[in-house]
Every structure is written in structure tokens, then in C-alpha cells.
Amino acid sequence: MFYPSLYELYQKRKESVMRPIVEDAFLPFSAALLIDMQSKFVGLWKSVDLGKLVGNQAKVIRYCAALDIPLVVLEYKNRGATLAALQKEIRRVPRVLELLKCDDNGFSNPRLHKMLQQFGAKTLLLMGINASHCVRRTALGAVRRHYSVLTAENLIVDSPNLIQRCYTARWCKKNGVLLLEKYSV
Fold it and tell me: Is 82 exposed, middle or buried (0-12, 13-18, 19+ CB in 10 A)?
């Protein structure tokens, strides 16, 4: 099966900031990061269909479990536990790492980079909440450490504020982070 390179897809992305490259895509990844899907964060997003978001993330987590793809669960310190619905799926993943962070950037915990190297990860799929801050800053930390990064609008939640969403989309384009509308496994 042929998978276009992230660079080829990124070049297509340059056509438009907000328009996705493809509506439904599968691209291979070597580790997944679940960022801040904690009760104290999730409760702040009243206008979002969290059932759909959590369902999409659970599918990716099940895929990680089935193919033994490493999963890193990042939790912001003192913000509660990851949602129970996701914890149930996380327990099935053979290689899972749970890390606390004190900063928006998951790479502020030095164990993250070290463990991703041990897993042999090259391409990271980011999922989570607060795309304009925690997901974006973790993506920046990954790009600075030479990982390929991809995410999709059906795996992350961002501010309902259009200016913030546009900023995140432009930032992804500028920094080589592949932002898809929908990611399917």
C-alpha cells in the first residue's frame, strides 16, 4: 500500500490554511500521544461534542493496542485523571507510558523524549484537548526534536474562537505539522 510522505501532504496543505488536505485519511504513525484528556480540562469545553471526540480517540487507542503501537498519556499536574472511558481503552495497550507535565509542552518532562527514542518513534499522532495551547506546544516540542507530527480535527479540540483556530491552523502549516480534518483507523 502506498502512503504519501508527510512532506507531500504538507505541500498540498499550503493551498489553504483552513481547508483540510483530505477529508478522511490514514497515515502511519509510530507512537500516539493523548494530551490532557482530564476531567478538569474536559469540563471547560461545553460547546464541543465530547462523546464524538472521545469515541474517535478511543478508536485510535484500540488501534494502538491491536498493533502494539506505543501510547503516551500526558496529564497536566493537579488537573485530575484521564477520562474513565479512555482509561478503559488505555489499559489494553501493551506499551503505554503515563507522564505528568507541569507545562503546556509535554516535552517539558524529559522522560517523554527519552521514552519515545526507546520506542523507536519517528512519527507522532497527537490527540487531546486545548489544541491552541497544550497540543500545539507539545507539537512544537516534537518538531524541535525532529519528529514528524500529525493530528486531525476529529482528534483534538480547540477554542470555539475562530481567530484561535486560524492561528493554530497557520501555526501547523508554518511548522510542518500535518493537520487533517479527519483521521480514520
Answer: buried
